[in-house]
Fold this sequence. Notes:
Radius of gyration: 13 Å
Number of strands: 11
Helix content: under 10%
Distance between the termini: 39 Å
Low-confidence stretches: none
Amino acid sequence: QGQLAESGGGSVQAGGSLRLSCAYSERRFTTYGMAWFRQLPGQGRERVAAINRWGTSTMYADSVQGRFTISRDNAQSTVYLEMNSLKPEDTAVYYCAASAYGGISTKYDYWGPGTQVTVSS
């Protein structure tokens, strides 16, 4: 099933931007729907954004709508999360996930180890 590896996390001041990347070492990358989740300390994982296998359909949590953009490059087997106008409440561990369903899914089969994003006020 390959492995997912996130990168691009770090620390930024409120109002700043970060771009997360997730490389998936799965030769059938184009068959998977992809998503970004985040987990705040002591809380469950929240789906932040999702994209279908072709990159033609996306969804966003209300909390990030208009600030975050998910995209994918199927030639590079990579999914991105562009995060703008970051707020302290965006501070979390961000996870990349893959769904064998291929569309916008509520069930994800494979997960990356996560990358920390910290937004200071």
